[in-house]
Amino acid sequence: METDLLDAALSTFAATAPEFGPYGLSNHGPMAAEVLGQLGRGDAIAGWVAAYQKHLQPAPPAAKPLTEEEWPAALGVMDRYPEWLALFETEMADRPVAAVVGEWVPRLVPGIVAAALHGLIRTAHGLRALGEADSSARRLEVATGLAYWAARYQELPGPPVLIGHQGVPEALADLPYLPEETPPEFLISAMVAHMADISDEFEQAVASLGAGGDALALLDALAVGGARAYLRNAADGHAIALVHSVTGPLALELVLPWLAEEDRDAAVAYAWQAVAAVHVVYDINRHDSDAVGDAPLERDALIERALASGDPHALKLTEAALRCYARTHEPALLRAAADAAARFGG
């Protein structure tokens, strides 16, 4: 039953553009619908889709797929999104999914911060859905996520060469800040582009993290650091941005099983680089004491609060936080999810 409900939702969203509104906000519809199923609330998918799709715009007209010669120059060119989508639709129809993902994700990870990590996040939710049930709607959703990632591809100063000895908490605490005269930008992608203004400092700070160890443990540590940063900075207007410092690395968790072992370390390093950029811009109060707050809510209460909020960020954060909490038992994850549902709701 939930399989049919999610496929219907994905088919609805396939007729919509990957962004909406005058600022080009990411379409969170498919991701949130998939999350509702993961949270055991498939019964809420149809109603949520009906409410959310009112904000969206129609999908752009179809186009011819990019050729092998054309695609490198089309990276990061949003106007070529229809051609990217046609390319990945063809790839997903003609080749095994693992082969497509295994070839293309390593090509795209240097631009993992694309659209505030939403190319990665949308691809990840699509892959989890496809791993549970193979259908044309789910294959198209993976193609759409990859196409969006490619069209919004955005590199940061690097590459991330992890030659240091710090753990995640120390590396996050020692990140630089942007200069005070940096102009404010509305979009997260525009703000992280200012890493070019402090490229040497940023590259050195990224390199301070020690390489090696368990990939999932590092992603969990990044998510915990993001939750703590969220709690320190949410009241200052940085809540939405810092949600992605949790959901971004935990999205990569869903992609890693599809990658060859030799490609996983690079993917994790680029995820760290992207999360570090978000912290540079938005974790302004990083040396403040962590907000303690109330005791974390239980799982069912968190899910109900997120659903009542009607907000896709709150839904995605809640699912990711619960997944990470099951391994780390870090209460900041649940506190951040509860705060987001209350803060973004209504």
Strand and helix map with partners:
Layout: H1 2-14, E1 19-20, E2 25-26, H2 29-38, H3 45-52, H4 71-74, H5 81-94, H6 97-108, H7 114-132, H8 136-151, H9 168-173, H10 188-192, H11 199-207, H12 215-233, H13 239-255, H14 261-282, H15 299-309, H16 312-328, H17 331-344
Helix pairs in contact: 1-2, 1-8, 2-3, 2-7, 2-16, 5-8, 6-8, 7-8, 7-13, 12-13, 12-14, 12-17, 13-14, 13-16, 15-16, 15-17, 16-17
Summary, kept brief:
This protein is an all-alpha fold. It has 17 helices and 2 strands. Helix content is 62%, strand content 1%.
Structure, described:
- The model has no long low-confidence stretch (mean pLDDT 95).
- The longest helix has 22 residues, at 261-282.
- This protein has 346 residues and is an all-alpha fold.
- The protein has two domains: 2-151, no CATH class; 156-346, no CATH class.
- It has a two-stranded antiparallel ribbon with strand order 1-2.
- α2 packs across α16 (312-328).
- The chain contains 17 helices and two strands.
Features of this protein?
globular, 346 residues, 17 helices, 2 domains, single chain, mainly alpha, 62% helix, two-stranded antiparallel ribbon
Using the alpha-carbon principal axes, give the shape.
Answer: globular
Q: In angstroms, what separates the terminal alpha carbons?
A: 29 Å
Q: Which regions have little confidence, pLDDT < 50, spanning 5+ residues? A: none
Number of domains: 2
Helix tally equals 17
- Name the structural class: mainly alpha
User: Strand share of the residues?
Assistant: under 5%
Radius of gyration, in Å, reads 19 Å
Portion of residues in helices? 55-70%
Main β-sheet: number of strands, strand sense, barrel status? 2 strands, antiparallel
Strands of the widest sheet, in order across it, are 1-2
The helix-strand sequence is HEEHHHHHHHHHHHHHHHH
Counting DSSP E segments of at least 2 residues, the number of strands comes to: 2
Query: What is the averaged pLDDT score?
Result: 95
